[in-house]
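Ticket #4471: structure output looks truncated?

Reporter: J.K.
Steps to reproduce: submitted the chain below (401 residues) through the standard prediction queue, then opened the result file.
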Amino acid sequence: MQDVAIPLAVRVAAAWAWRLLVIGAGVYFTSQVLGRFSSLLIPLLVALLLAALLAPVVEGLVRLLIPRVLAVVVVVVATLAVLVGLITLVTTRVSAGAADLVASVNSGLEEVQTWLSDGPLALSTSQLTGYVDQLQAQLQSNVATIASQLLTLTSAATSLITGAFVVLFLLIFFLYDGQKIWEWCVRLLPQRAEAPFDGAVRRGWITLVSYVRATVVVAFVDAIGIGLGALLLGVPLAVPLAVIIFLGAFVPIVGALVSGAVAVLVALVTVGATKALILLVVVLAVQQLESNVLQPFLLGRAVSVHPVAVILAISAGITLAGIVGALFAVPVVAVLNTVVTYLVRGGDGGPLPEEEEDVEAALLEPDPVPERSSLGDARDEPDSPPIGPATSAERPGQLSR
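Returned output as attached by the reporter:
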């Protein structure tokens, strides 16, 4: 009788309200728990991204009859050599061009000051001096805060070194023994949940591999295009700027925008407004090439995440975990999209490809699959491991308990 007295709209709103409260509380407490273990979670996610990038290379060497141990060692050592080489190149170029950069910046600031006084704003010398004095006063009043931030950076550098060793340790074992690690994780689940969860996560892994491959190619094109434009325009530190642009491209949309703005700003204060405007055109052209040609061609439907979802995911990642959250937001959302879609559709996600080389083609043009009557039919699908390609023909349903 009481239900009849309450309007249907109110009952529906109340039902939605308490469910949303429960979901929100679950998300909040989960984020708090993950934040407590961020020193372990972040290296784990970084190792997974690197494993998604390097696992196909390891498998290619294994197919050339190179022992897996040797293949893993070669790939990891080569990756470390590339990273060390990039760091050495950047630091060498920065140290060599620091004096010229300071002189260029001083000259550029003088030009900006002249433009502010003689240009459309028509600011007087006294006004400019007042603004400069206010800036100096702000800096002096925040000396203690800056010093504490430096101490925080020192502590962060120590944590970064520790995390790098953890990433290296996890990466080696993911590349060498990823299949067995995943099978052990699946055996922890109830038997009826093994097949659907295994199939969902394997497809999520393929999505992650596709995302990382495409992101690396896009980042490389961005760095080459904008870095070459900066070099031709005579912008100092073009190589370090290219490295910044390469790293920034791993955060979709926002990273490319911020890193491109940094390059244009450096050009403005070093080589003048005209060349900075030309570099801005280069940055916009490269980003249009990235968004309209490279990403649709490389990703297709393999990573089907709407730009609105990308922006919201990056914003949520920044709110929860800063730069690290922005870096992992999109791959996490892409993988969850694949996993949840597979589970919601009853495990009807199409067969997995037999060979690693066919992953992207199979995702872009999926083969027709006969309808399944239950989740248990997902056990009949061929597998592709979530951490590195499969080393055997074992199927998900045949995992030994």
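Triage note (M.O.): checked the attachment and the full token line is present. The CA atoms of residues 16 and 310 lie 26 Å apart.
Status: closed, working as intended.
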